[in-house]
């Protein structure tokens, strides 16, 4: 009996020793990651099921939970898939600005994962959003990029889908000849691969064009064929789309009885699968029918129901349509008070998307600032905490040696050690999560090398650099332009521009230094010297000017205020580092910085102005052409020789001009 007891205790002690010494830790880590991935995959799959039946609220919660897990285990492709699915939910809610944000996040992660199919799918989705916003040239630009990749990987189904989307743009601008050319091409592909759902969607598009051209019999025939396929394929979402189109078809013919029949049927189907969007759309449409029939009290009842559903769904476009219906109905009943109330609400919803987006961005920026100092302090304490855990483990090892000396006492202490080890394991896991969060926040503010030095020493030594390029931008007549804009719109417009500049800086591997009001500052060749930094910073400057010019063109189309920008670049020696002990910021100093500022302030809008020093260093680059400006008097610097620089290569604007010519200008 004693022998069995000793053998049993020996096995327990050996198992504890293996656990504490870390044998097999790698396999445990891999097992945990594997389990996390299984959980995330399950949550994502369940979210997809709820998404299919139209329960977007549950689907969104499940997608967000799976996203958090994928981010913790760094599954780049899955992170991109989650952002795409979340963006799709906001798309069906009509919140296009949030949709565009999530789709662009998804594109970034799919690029990191080098997932060609995912990149192509997201490019197509972004094109759909620009189409919905009425920016057809931008939509076609993304569609064309997507279709090239889809053809490269041989995905004929997606090639057909994108071809259909291009056809939809022509349909939207009533160029039905070109629209049918693309739709028929997509239809032929869907038929060749026997994709019945794709065929059904094409029939909807063809029916829509027939309806817009006044060929109602042909439209009814196409919609009916599409509905038959949707029923056979048991695709409720597709059925809802067809029923909604049938309702619109008879509404256009003023056959309000049949229109009401199809919208009622659409509402019943939407109730079955809990699709809030189509419940809202159908109720609002029925309300408009009652208004046409002079039954304004019933119209108010239906549109009020539609408004409640839209509010529950969060679909701003549906809320706007419902308020317009209520406005017209109350106006017909000569209830001017309520009519005016809903008229004002309808107008307010048109601007609410932009205001909400700007507010969310501002809150996120403030949150990151508040978290930064806590993260830095936490990283400094990390080594102390780990040392304490090592001392605790050593203490447990001494206790284990005592256990071996006494068999009976060993059993009791072994149980205690087991519990303690579980505690240590959980603590390490929690510390790992916090450490990752701190690292991410630090790297968002400082270059990686500087952040590492700050963590190790608590400070950063200033460094001399012999050849660094400095870029400055600012907006011309910023104060006058800002006076024409609300604070929310001003913040949004600046954020759009600076976010684009950040992406351009990242593309050309130049370091963003800071923003001061409407000014943006970046540097090339730090913290690591780079032989291509001079060329890259000029290319970055040209891309920034191109973005601001394109943005101004888009804003002019919508009669919105726009900015014009000056941009200057100089090269020379600087000192770089961090000063102070609070709110750390990586900065640069020296006469080169001051001269770069003068180069910018003496520039012209829409141009990239460079110094003579930089010109002599890049004048042999074949991708640039230069225009000598002569000696310009700069404040505090005297006369400085300056040059304008432009690109020789084929630009996006050239591509757009060719696209307009080839496709009968939208």
Describe this structure in words.
The protein is an alpha+beta fold. It is built from 25 helices and 8 strands. Strand 4 and strand 5 form a beta hairpin. The longest helix has 70 residues, at 336-405. The protein is globular. The protein starts with a helix and ends with a helix.
Q: What Rg is obtained from the alpha carbons, in whole angstroms?
A: 31 Å
Uncertain parts: 1-24, 356-379, 650-666
Q: What is the share of helical residues?
A: over 70%
Envelope shape = globular
Portion in strands: 5-15%
Number of helices, counting only DSSP H or I runs of 4 residues or more:
25
Biggest sheet: strands, sense, closure?
8 strands, mixed
Give average pLDDT, whole number.
81
Total number of beta strands: 8
Distance between the termini: 93 Å
Helix and strand content put the structural class at alpha+beta
Write the layout of secondary structure elements.
Elements: H1 2-21, H2 25-52, H3 56-72, H4 76-93, H5 96-112, H6 116-132, H7 136-153, H8 156-172, H9 176-192, H10 196-212, H11 216-233, H12 236-252, H13 256-272, H14 276-292, H15 296-313, H16 316-332, H17 336-405, H18 407-445, H19 448-457, E1 463-476, H20 478-482, H21 487-507, E2 511-516, E3 519-524, H22 533-557, E4 564-578, E5 586-589, H23 591-601, E6 608-611, H24 612-618, E7 624-634, E8 638-647, H25 652-662
Nutshell version of this structure?
By secondary structure, the protein is an alpha+beta fold.
């Amino acid at each position: 009996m004693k022998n069995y007891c000793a053998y049993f205790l020996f096995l327990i002690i050996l198992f504890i020793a293996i656990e504490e010494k870390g044998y097999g830790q790698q396999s445990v880590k891999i097992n945990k990651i594997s389990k996390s991935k299984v959980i995330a995959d399950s949550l994502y799959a369940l979210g997809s099921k709820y998404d299919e039946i139209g329960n977007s609220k549950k689907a969104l919660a499940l997608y967000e939970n799976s996203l958090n897990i994928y981010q913790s285990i760094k599954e780049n492709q899955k992170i991109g898939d989650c952002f795409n699915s979340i963006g799709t939910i906001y798309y069906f809610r009509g919140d296009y600005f949030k949709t565009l944000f999530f789709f662009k996040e998804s594109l970034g992660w799919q690029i990191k994962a080098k997932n060609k199919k995912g990149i192509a799918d997201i490019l197509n989705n972004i094109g759909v959003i620009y189409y919905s916003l009425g920016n057809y040239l931008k939509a076609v630009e993304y569609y064309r990029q997507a279709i090239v990749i889809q053809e490269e990987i041989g995905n004929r189904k997606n090639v057909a889908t994108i071809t259909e989307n291009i056809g939809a743009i022509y349909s939207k601008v009533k160029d039905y000849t070109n629209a049918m050319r693309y739709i028929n091409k997509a239809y032929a592909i869907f038929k060749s691969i026997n994709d019945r759902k794709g065929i059904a969607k094409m029939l909807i598009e063809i029916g829509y064009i027939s309806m817009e051209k006044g060929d109602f019999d042909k439209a009814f025939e196409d919609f009916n064929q599409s509905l038959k396929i949707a029923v056979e394929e048991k695709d409720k979402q597709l059925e809802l789309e067809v029923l909604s189109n049938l309702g619109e078809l008879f509404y256009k013919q003023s056959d309000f009885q049949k229109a009401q029949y199809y919208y009622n049927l659409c509402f019943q189907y939407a109730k079955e699968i809990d699709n809030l969007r189509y419940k809202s759309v159908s109720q609002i449409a029925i309300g408009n029918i009652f208004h046409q029939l002079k039954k304004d009290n019933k119209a108010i009842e239906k549109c009020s129901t539609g408004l409640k559903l839209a509010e529950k769904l969060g679909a701003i476009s549906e809320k706007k349509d419902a308020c317009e219906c209520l406005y017209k109905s109350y106006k017909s009943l000569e209830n001017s008070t309520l009519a005016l109330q809903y008229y004002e609400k309808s107008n307010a919803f048109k601007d609410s998307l932009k205001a909400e987006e700007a507010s969310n961005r501002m809150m996120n920026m403030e949150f990151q600032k508040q978290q930064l100092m806590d993260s830095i302090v936490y990283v400094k304490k990390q080594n102390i905490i780990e040392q304490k855990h090592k001392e605790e483990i050593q203490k447990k090892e001494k206790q284990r040696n005592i256990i071996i000396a006494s068999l009976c006492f060993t059993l009791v202490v072994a149980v205690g050690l087991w519990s303690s080890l579980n505690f240590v394991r959980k603590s390490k896991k929690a510390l790992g999560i916090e450490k990752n969060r701190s690292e991410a926040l630090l790297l968002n503010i400082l270059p990686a090398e500087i952040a590492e030095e700050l963590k190790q020493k608590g400070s950063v030594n200033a460094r001399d650099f012999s050849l660094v390029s400095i870029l400055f931008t600012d907006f011309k007549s910023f104060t006058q332009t800002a006076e024409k804009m609300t604070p929310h719109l001003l913040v949004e417009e600046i954020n759009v521009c600076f976010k684009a500049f950040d992406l351009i800086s990242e593309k050309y591997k130049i370091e963003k230094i800071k923003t001061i009001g409407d000014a943006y500052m970046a540097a090339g060749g730090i913290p690591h010297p780079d032989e291509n930094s001079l060329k890259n910073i000029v290319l970055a400057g040209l891309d920034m000017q191109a973005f601001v010019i394109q943005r101004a063109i888009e804003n002019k189309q919508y009669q919105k205020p726009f900015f014009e920008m000056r941009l200057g670049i100089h090269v020379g020696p600087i000192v770089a580092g961090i000063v102070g002990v609070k709110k750390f910021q990586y900065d640069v100093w020296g006469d080169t910085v001051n001269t770069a500022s003068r180069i910018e302030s003496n520039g012209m809008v829409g141009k990239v102005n460079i110094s003579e020093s930089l010109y002599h260093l890049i004048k042999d680059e074949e991708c640039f052409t230069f225009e000598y400006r002569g000696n310009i008097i700069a404040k505090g610097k005297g006369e400085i020789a300056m040059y304008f620089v432009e690109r020789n290569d084929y630009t996006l604007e050239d591509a757009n001009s060719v696209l307009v010519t080839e496709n009968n200008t939208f």
